[in-house]
Amino acid sequence: MSFEKLGLSENTLGAVRRKGFSEPTDIQREVIPLFLKGNADIVGQSQTGTGKTASFALPLVDVINEYEREVQAIILTPTRELALQVADEIKSLRGKKRIRVLSVYGGQPIGPQIRTLRKGVHIVVGTPGRVLDHIRRGTLRLDGIQYFILDEADRMLDMGFIDDIRAIFRETPRNKRVLMFSATMPREVLRLAKRYMEKYELIRTSSDEPVPGLVEQEYIEVVPARKISVLKRILDGEFHGIIFCQTKRETRILAEKLAHMGYNAEALNGDMNQRSRERTLMRFKRRKINILVATDVAARGIDVQDIAHIVNYSLPQNAEMYIHRIGRTGRAGKKGKAITFIKPGEYRRLRYIESVAKVSIKKSKLQESIDREKRRDSRKRY
Q1: Phi/psi at 359 (5° precision)
Q2: What predicted TM-score, i.e. pTM, was given to this entire model?
Q3: How many alpha carbons fall within 13 Å on the CB side of residue 376?
Q4: Domain spans, the chain
């Protein structure tokens, strides 16, 4: 089934195409039509990396009334990182609709959040503690809420947010829809559903495998100025794979640099027309080029067998994107390798992605060589 058959508006379908989504995942196929056509509450079980956020973000964009100033949807997440990620995903999918989205969380000055709320916001995405803080200050009113969404409900319960969730729920009107998403479905989650949902549809998806079991995952901490030299060490072996960059400009610059150094590399990004993309992919499939330098558009649509390597030239924005990227390798019973570059100071963010994606990302052996060189260079200076 294509996105066109799920009942989404043309505006939202346009955003889907710009994002490079090819076909809906299982959770998207189940949730989107039910969200748009039905009146029932929804409990969805789906692993991280299966497109869960888009499953509620896409229909939410369609049902929000952009001409009303009051908050129409509240989305609770267990962490500030996830709040930012969900808010960014909704913004990237809103197309031409003037939907205002605000993420609220602790550890950040509350003043700018208050000023934005006073201007009018349609969707608030936040952690329970900060949302409750705004409610008690009178800066966030939820009496116009039509959609109450709990993301990663199992983690919120594990982190002890149940009392905050109850307090927030009491501030919302009775006549609203409640959606709850969870990677696992323990009794506590179902008990929460029974307490706060009138009549709900339970959706479980299991066919979307989040992370191939045959992918060896490593990280390398490297300063930006040395990324190219470290990358060369990886490419000088037998390499047939994808290097993921954050921006279209970065793919072009890196592909040109690698080609100038004698590597068989080409860029793949959203600025290319469909015919050019298909030609590049065909050359990659036939091994006429062995290095594809791509944006995350490629993570959604590439289906090439025997990709042996994935390099995250920059740390992905979230766990879901990390899984989409490394899922290009380790297929059909064959081993693959995924190497992620992190800058100094990004270690905690890497570990957050690791915990949410439920994967193990080990320090690369190449890191030891880099560290030895650092110490040697330091001694030379002094």
Answers
A1: -125, 175
A2: 0.63
A3: 6
A4: 3-204, 215-381
User: Which CATH code fits 215-381?
Assistant: 3.40.50.300
For helices 187-196 and 162-169, give the axis angle rounded to 10 degrees.
10
Nearest alpha carbon to residue 123 among 164, 65, 175: 65
Tens digits of pLDDT across the chain (382 residues)? 789 999 999 999 999 988 878 788 889 999 999 999 878 899 998 866 678 899 999 999 999 999 998 999 999 998 887 888 899 889 999 999 999 999 999 888 899 999 999 999 999 999 999 999 999 999 999 999 999 999 988 888 878 899 999 999 999 998 999 999 987 777 888 888 888 887 889 998 754 445 567 899 999 999 999 999 999 999 998 899 999 998 889 999 999 999 999 999 999 886 777 578 778 888 998 889 999 999 876 555 566 767 899 999 999 888 878 887 888 888 666 789 999 999 999 999 999 899 888 889 999 988 877 777 766 665 555 4
Amino acid identity for residue 311 in this structure: V
Residue 56's nearest CA partner among 153, 142, 186, 187 is: 153
Answer whether 3-204 and 215-381 agree in fold. Answer: yes
Q: How far is C-alpha 213 from the chain's CA centre?
A: 20
Nearest to 291 by CA among 274, 313, 276, 318: 313
Cα separation, 244 vs 40, whole angstroms: 40
Q: Indicate the CATH number for domain 3-204.
A: 3.40.50.300
The residue length of the chain stands at 382
